[in-house]
Design brief:
Residues 51-85 form a coiled coil. There is one protein chain. The protein is mostly helical and 90 residues long. It has two domains: 1-37, no CATH class; 47-90. The chain has helices at 3-6, 15-27, 51-89. It is flat.
């Protein structure tokens, strides 16, 4: 049987494969409990209704991004200084 009949690897198995597994487990007298997969429900993103609200959120996110970039650059400078001091001690 091919992938098109059994299902993709690491994906949801198709019915023929599941039936084969159950039949094989029964034949070998192995306990087999079929767990039904939970339906995946994707929650839609919350809509930003107003342009002004969107711009405020965007401005806040840009400010947060800039803050993190400054922290990153400061830590990079500190790392370089510490490496320099370590080399001087050696």
């Amino acid at each position: 049987k091919g992938k098109d009949q059994l299902g993709k690897r690491l994906g949801i198995a198709f019915e023929p494969y599941t039936q084969w597994v159950i039949a094989r487990a029964t034949k070998l007298k192995m306990p087999y409990r079929l767990e039904k997969p939970l339906p995946s429900v994707a929650t839609p993103p919350s809509p930003i209704k107003k342009k002004k609200e969107f711009q405020e959120v965007l401005a806040r996110m840009k400010l947060e991004r800039d803050t993190w970039e400054k922290k990153f650059h400061a830590s990079e400078l500190e790392k370089k200084e510490l490496k320099k001091q370590l080399k001087e001690k050696e």
